[in-house]
Amino acid sequence: MGLSNCPECGKLYVENAARVCPECYRKQEEDAEKVIEYLRDIDKATLEEIHQATGVKHKIILRLLRSGRIMGSEISYPCESCGTLIAEGRLCDKCSKNILDQIKTEERHQEHEKQSVSSKNRSRMYGKFIDTEER
Ligand SMILES: [Zn+2]
Ligand SMILES: [Zn+2]
Question: Which bound ligand lies closest to the C-alpha atom of 84?
Protein backbone atom coordinates (compact mmCIF):
# COMPACT_ATOMS: atom_id res chain seq x y z
CA MET A 1 0.00 0.00 0.00
CA GLY A 2 1.34 3.39 -0.89
CA LEU A 3 0.45 6.73 -2.30
CA SER A 4 -0.16 7.04 -5.97
CA ASN A 5 -1.50 9.59 -8.42
CA CYS A 6 -5.03 8.92 -9.53
CA PRO A 7 -4.91 8.11 -13.27
CA GLU A 8 -8.24 9.89 -13.75
CA CYS A 9 -7.84 13.20 -11.93
CA GLY A 10 -4.13 13.19 -11.02
CA LYS A 11 -4.73 13.67 -7.30
CA LEU A 12 -2.67 11.79 -4.75
CA TYR A 13 -4.56 8.93 -3.13
CA VAL A 14 -3.89 5.82 -1.08
CA GLU A 15 -3.64 2.85 -3.44
CA ASN A 16 -6.65 0.57 -3.50
CA ALA A 17 -8.14 -2.23 -5.55
CA ALA A 18 -10.06 0.18 -7.77
CA ARG A 19 -6.80 1.89 -8.80
CA VAL A 20 -8.42 5.33 -8.80
CA CYS A 21 -9.03 7.77 -5.95
CA PRO A 22 -12.24 7.31 -3.93
CA GLU A 23 -13.81 10.34 -5.57
CA CYS A 24 -13.22 9.05 -9.09
CA TYR A 25 -14.26 5.59 -8.01
CA ARG A 26 -17.61 6.95 -6.83
CA LYS A 27 -17.98 8.84 -10.09
CA GLN A 28 -17.19 5.70 -12.09
CA GLU A 29 -19.72 3.71 -10.13
CA GLU A 30 -22.34 6.36 -10.82
CA ASP A 31 -21.43 6.23 -14.50
CA ALA A 32 -21.64 2.46 -14.47
CA GLU A 33 -25.11 2.63 -12.91
CA LYS A 34 -26.22 5.08 -15.60
CA VAL A 35 -24.98 2.85 -18.41
CA ILE A 36 -26.42 -0.32 -16.91
CA GLU A 37 -29.72 1.44 -16.28
CA TYR A 38 -29.83 2.76 -19.84
CA LEU A 39 -29.13 -0.68 -21.31
CA ARG A 40 -31.70 -2.44 -19.18
CA ASP A 41 -34.38 -2.21 -21.89
CA ILE A 42 -32.08 -2.14 -24.89
CA ASP A 43 -30.76 -5.12 -26.82
CA LYS A 44 -28.45 -3.32 -29.16
CA ALA A 45 -26.63 -0.03 -28.94
CA THR A 46 -23.49 1.58 -30.21
CA LEU A 47 -20.90 3.13 -27.94
CA GLU A 48 -21.81 6.54 -29.33
CA GLU A 49 -25.52 6.05 -28.56
CA ILE A 50 -24.76 5.10 -24.97
CA HIS A 51 -22.43 8.07 -24.66
CA GLN A 52 -25.06 10.44 -26.06
CA ALA A 53 -27.78 9.07 -23.82
CA THR A 54 -25.82 8.89 -20.56
CA GLY A 55 -23.01 11.40 -21.00
CA VAL A 56 -20.56 8.73 -19.82
CA LYS A 57 -17.10 8.77 -21.41
CA HIS A 58 -16.34 6.20 -24.13
CA LYS A 59 -13.35 4.99 -22.14
CA ILE A 60 -15.50 4.17 -19.14
CA ILE A 61 -18.18 2.42 -21.19
CA LEU A 62 -15.48 0.32 -22.86
CA ARG A 63 -13.99 -0.55 -19.51
CA LEU A 64 -17.39 -1.71 -18.27
CA LEU A 65 -17.85 -3.73 -21.41
CA ARG A 66 -14.46 -5.44 -21.06
CA SER A 67 -14.89 -6.16 -17.38
CA GLY A 68 -18.12 -7.97 -18.23
CA ARG A 69 -20.41 -5.67 -16.30
CA ILE A 70 -22.53 -4.95 -19.33
CA MET A 71 -24.22 -8.16 -20.26
CA GLY A 72 -27.27 -9.14 -22.23
CA SER A 73 -26.99 -6.23 -24.63
CA GLU A 74 -25.09 -6.17 -27.85
CA ILE A 75 -22.84 -3.15 -27.84
CA SER A 76 -20.94 -2.11 -30.89
CA TYR A 77 -17.95 0.17 -30.67
CA PRO A 78 -15.30 1.35 -33.09
CA CYS A 79 -12.27 -0.73 -34.03
CA GLU A 80 -9.24 0.85 -32.37
CA SER A 81 -7.44 0.99 -35.67
CA CYS A 82 -9.93 1.94 -38.40
CA GLY A 83 -13.17 2.85 -36.59
CA THR A 84 -15.39 0.13 -38.09
CA LEU A 85 -18.06 -0.87 -35.58
CA ILE A 86 -17.32 -4.17 -33.88
CA ALA A 87 -18.87 -6.13 -31.03
CA GLU A 88 -15.90 -7.95 -29.54
CA GLY A 89 -12.16 -7.63 -29.14
CA ARG A 90 -10.34 -4.38 -29.85
CA LEU A 91 -9.95 -4.58 -33.60
CA CYS A 92 -12.18 -5.53 -36.51
CA ASP A 93 -11.46 -8.76 -38.38
CA LYS A 94 -9.61 -6.94 -41.11
CA CYS A 95 -7.29 -5.06 -38.74
CA SER A 96 -6.57 -8.05 -36.51
CA LYS A 97 -5.68 -10.03 -39.62
CA ASN A 98 -3.39 -7.22 -40.76
CA ILE A 99 -1.67 -7.19 -37.40
CA LEU A 100 -1.25 -10.96 -37.39
CA ASP A 101 0.28 -10.74 -40.85
CA GLN A 102 2.62 -8.02 -39.66
CA ILE A 103 3.73 -10.06 -36.66
CA LYS A 104 4.33 -13.06 -38.87
CA THR A 105 6.37 -11.04 -41.30
CA GLU A 106 8.43 -9.57 -38.48
CA GLU A 107 9.02 -12.98 -36.94
CA ARG A 108 10.14 -14.34 -40.27
CA HIS A 109 12.44 -11.35 -40.66
CA GLN A 110 13.96 -11.80 -37.19
CA GLU A 111 14.36 -15.52 -37.73
CA HIS A 112 16.20 -14.77 -40.94
CA GLU A 113 18.51 -12.24 -39.25
CA LYS A 114 19.27 -14.60 -36.40
CA GLN A 115 20.25 -17.31 -38.87
CA SER A 116 22.52 -15.13 -40.92
CA VAL A 117 24.24 -13.79 -37.77
CA SER A 118 24.87 -17.22 -36.35
CA SER A 119 26.22 -18.58 -39.62
CA LYS A 120 28.57 -15.59 -39.81
CA ASN A 121 29.74 -16.30 -36.25
CA ARG A 122 30.23 -19.91 -37.02
CA SER A 123 32.44 -19.25 -40.05
CA ARG A 124 34.46 -16.70 -38.04
CA MET A 125 34.98 -19.23 -35.26
CA TYR A 126 35.81 -21.89 -37.75
CA GLY A 127 38.32 -19.59 -39.43
CA LYS A 128 40.02 -18.89 -36.10
CA PHE A 129 40.09 -22.56 -35.31
CA ILE A 130 41.89 -23.29 -38.55
CA ASP A 131 44.34 -20.44 -37.87
CA THR A 132 45.39 -21.75 -34.47
CA GLU A 133 45.63 -25.26 -35.82
CA GLU A 134 48.04 -24.20 -38.48
CA ARG A 135 50.31 -22.26 -36.17
ZN1 LIG B 1 -9.26 10.69 -9.00
ZN1 LIG C 1 -10.35 -2.08 -38.13
Answer: 2
Ion ligand 2: residues, CB within 5 A, are 79, 81-82, 84, 92, 95
Distance from residue 9's CA to the centre of ligand 1 (Å): 4
Q: For the segment 45-82, what is each residue's pLDDT rounded down to a tens digit?
A: 999 999 999 999 999 999 899 888 888 889 999 999 99
Beta bridge partners of 75: 45
Q: Is the pLDDT of residue 85 over 80?
A: yes
Provide the residue ranges of all domains of the chain, joining segments of one domain with +: 1-78, 91-135
In the chain, count of helices (H) and strands (E)? 4, 5
CA distances from 6 to 53, 61, 66, 77 (A): 27, 19, 21, 26
